[in-house]
Amino acid sequence: MLRKILLSLAIVCATAATQAQNLQLHFDPRHSLYGDNVPTSPQNYLTATFEMFKPDKWGSTFMFADFDFNNDKKNIGLVYAEVAREFKIGAFPLQPHIEYNGGLGNGFSIPSSYLAGFGYPFQLGNFYMSTYVAYKLNAFQEVSNDAQWTVTWNATLADGKVSLAGFFDLWSENKDRTGLESGKRLVMLSEPQFWYNFTPNFSLGTEVEVSYNFVIGPEKFYAIPTLASKWTF
Q: In sequence order, which residues have a C-beta less than 8 Å from that of residue 102 and are 6 or more positions away?
């Protein structure tokens, strides 16, 4: 499952004051839900995710790495990572944002993308939120010059027992990555998460991957919930 900004990307609020990192393990039942209609996923599988968010006096750094155990004999078949950095400029409300996304699969590579734009962290009640708009270069066989809009959120409720997090992405990219045909398509991806925190460190919950025009099917909509556990350091 690509793109796990656990939403922690949400934590990419400059208003956050502590460092956070966690390990997650997700059971992905997409084959049971959609069968052979999802050709890139001939089986259910586990995904392990490592996330880190670290603020400092100059801004904040966020990164995560996904490891999909969808290869032969349940070995790792795909690794995907994102690294993002935002910079504070005094009291200026907008923060320059740079980001790299990319990964490797079994016998193939995921085209890298490079983003540069401006982010804006804010708070709505108990929700720490952030949004950014960025130019996005997709390094396809024919380079695709695009734009992306992202919103992230993170909240702790019920005296720390419940956590909500997630992100919403909307971006453009070339319909044909080889450049033989012209035209753009719009891609949507969102991954809201719900966690019940049994202790400050251990949580159980779910993440729902909601997508349109994403890698598992052009012009198709998918909603794929996971069963998940999380350990926060």
A: 80, 81, 109, 110, 111, 112, 113
What distance, in Å, lies between the first and last C-alpha atoms of the chain? 23
Q: Which residue has the tokens 């890139």?
A: 40
Tell me 18's DSSP state.
S
Q: What are 152-175's pLDDT values in tens digits?
A: 999 999 999 999 999 999 999 999
Task: Give the other-Cβ count within 10 Å of 154's Cβ.
Answer: 26
Give the domain extent around 114. 9-232
The pTM (predicted TM-score) of the whole model is: 0.86
- Structure tokens that stand for 83 in this block: 């690294």
Does a structural domain hold residue 2? no
Segment 30-34 long-range contacts (CB within 8 Å, at least 24 positions apart): 30/216, 30/222, 30/224, 33/224, 34/222, 34/224
State how far the Cα of 177 lies from the Cα of 173, in Å rounded to an integer. 8
Closest CA to 1 of 163, 181, 225: 225
- Residue 3 in any domain: the answer is no
Q: Domain for residue 79, yes or no?
A: yes
200: three-class secondary structure by DSSP: coil
Let me know the angle formed at the C-alpha of 177 by 190 and 114, rounded to the nearest 5 degrees. Answer: 55
Dig out the tokens for 189 from the structure. 């991806």
What band does 10 get if pLDDT is binned at 50, 70 and 90? very low
Q: What are the tokens at 177?
A: 């990555």
- The owner of tokens 């019920």 is 158
Number of structural domains found in the chain: 1
CATH number for the domain that contains residue 130:
2.40.160.40
